[in-house]
Structures are given as C-alpha cells and as structure tokens.
Amino acid sequence: QGLMAGKRGLVMGVANNRSIAWGIAKAIHAHGGTVGFTYQGDALRKRVEPLAAELGGLVAGHCDVTDTASLDACFAKVEEEWGGIDFLVHAIAFSDKDELTGRYVDTSEQNFSKTMLISCYSLTAVAQRAEKLMNKGGSILTLTYYGAEKVMPHYNVMGVAKAALEASVRYLAVDLGPKGIRVNAISAGPIKTLAASGIGDFRYILKWNEYNAPLRRTVTTDEVGDVGLYLCSDLSRSVTGEIHHADSGYHVVG
Ligand code: 0WD
C-alpha cells in the first residue's frame, strides 16, 4: 500500500541520521517503498547498517564513486537481489574543506578535479549503471545548492561543481527521457549535516536564510525528504530536467 508500493531503489550518500539522503529514504519507506543503501568505507558502514535495518532495507555495500570497481559491485549486488530498480538517489559531494573558505580564485587543480569527479561526474557514472536496471523507466534524483546559481560565500569550487551538476541533470534528462527515465535535482536550503560542517561560516549562512527566506526559516532533512518522495514517485511522472528548490523560497530573494 502507498505511493511507493512495489517500488525499489538505491539511496547513495547516507553518512548518518542527519544526512539529507536519510530524510529521503525515510519518506520513501514511509510510503511503502523499499530502499537499498551504499556506504563509503568502513567507518560509515557502522552507521549505515543499523539505519538500513531500521527501514528493513538492503545494504548494497561499500561504494566510493572514485573507485569504479566498488560502483560496479554495488550495482551488481542490486541487480542480483532485485533484478531492476525504480529510483536512484544521488546525495554525494566532496571538496577539500581548506578550499571551502577564502577565495575561489585560489582553488588548486587537484582539488578542482577531485571535487568535480565526486560531486558532478559521479551522477553520470551512476546514471550509466542505473539505466541498465531501469527497464520499466525510473527516476534519478540528485542534490544541489543555490551556490550553483549565485556566488555564495565560501562555497567556491563546490558552486562550480554544482553548476556543472545541474547542467548534467538537463543533458541526462534528454538522453534518458526516451526510456522513461526522469532526472531531476532538489536545490536544498542549507542544513547542518556532516558535509555542511566543512563549509566556512555555515552558521551565518543558516541565520541569513532564516532571516531572509520568504518562509522565515530554514528547512529540515524530513522536508527535503518529502520533496524527494514526490520526485521519486509517479506523482512527478511529467517532470524531468528540473531543478526543484526546497529552500523556504530563499532563491526568489537571494
Ligand atoms: O546544506 C546542506 N547540507 C546541503 C547539501 C544543501 C544543498 C545541497 N546539499 C547536498 C550536498 O552537496 C550533497 O550533494 O546534498 C548532498 C548530501 O549532503 P548532506 O546530506 O548535506 O551531507 P552528508 O550527510 O555528509 O552526506 C554526504 C556524503 C558523504 O558524507 P561525508 O560527510 O562523509 O563526506 O556523500 C558521501 C559520503 O557518504 N560521499 C561519497 N560517497 C561515495 N564516494 C564520496 C565518495 N567518494 N564522497 C562523499
């Protein structure tokens, strides 16, 4: 029973119970969907396994998107267990925190490449693999931030990577559309997660959003989870290539 009844999919990017990916996984599960999880390395395995168990989900294994073998292994596991998937959530990003402060102009080539690989290219890498498992169509969802559209203090190279990620959403939507596979992004307002704690002056950004967003508050992972539920479900069956803001409306004033 429910909006996601009979639907199965992979949620990548749960680090702990404050992760946006976890908010989305909970919402999908609450509406009858079955969720598979990947974790990055042994340290996160200890956090992700109990969370997956809480939702009766599948643990697809270790996946570091910079390691093709681990990516292939996770998708192989999912294919073996389920045959196919209906949705895939990509909630993965990384940049050296020394470069998430100060000036963008000082970005190193090495961190630029690494940030682009993990935060942007990885969506395409997972889409290639998801396409093979979405024979009945499906929904691919990623997470982006307003720093892709406007310069936000300290977001720097991550803003450039998110701009490329948003462009990737549009190109992937066109390529995969004929197969009934939709590709969208949620542009989430700032939330205090592990990844966000690497961004300089993050508390100030939260306050700024709280004072200036039309709804006069920040957003929660559960709220972003509900938007994720909509984009993964058939309710959004006519929506693809979209960057959907879930930010208390901040983007209309920021
Ligand atoms: O304010 C925020 N928190 C916002 C986050 C606002 C708007 C967008 N986002 C985005 C992030 O950029 C990211 O794409 O949402 C996505 C999820 O981020 P999150 O929920 O804020 O952060 P977190 O709970 O830390 O999850 C991100 C995870 C990693 O966690 P850590 O903190 O350990 O780096 O991405 C995963 C990892 O689990 N990750 C990787 N997964 C596979 N391979 C890799 C990798 N190489 N690198 C990071």
UniProtKB/TrEMBL annotation:
What gene name does this entry carry?
fabI_1
What residues sit in the active site?
Y145 (proton acceptor), Y155 (proton acceptor)
For this UniProt entry, the molecular function terms from Gene Ontology, in alphabetical order, are: enoyl-[acyl-carrier-protein] reductase (NADH) activity
InterPro entries attached here?
Enoyl-ACP_Rdtase_NADH (IPR014358), NAD(P)-bd_dom_sf (IPR036291), SDR_fam (IPR002347)
Catalyzed reactions: a 2,3-saturated acyl-[ACP] + NAD(+) = a (2E)-enoyl-[ACP] + NADH + H(+)
Q: In which pathway does it act?
A: Lipid metabolism; fatty acid biosynthesis
Q: Does the keyword Heme apply?
A: no
Q: Which source organism does the UniProt entry give?
A: Methylobrevis pamukkalensis
What name does UniProt use for this protein? Enoyl-[acyl-carrier-protein] reductase [NADH]
- Which amino acid positions bind NAD(+), per UniProt? G13, S19, I20, Q40, D64, V65, I92, K162, I191, K192, T193, L194, A195
Q: What class of enzyme is it?
A: oxidoreductase
Task: Write the Enzyme Commission number(s) for this entry.
Answer: 1.3.1.9
Any single biological process term in GO: fatty acid biosynthetic process
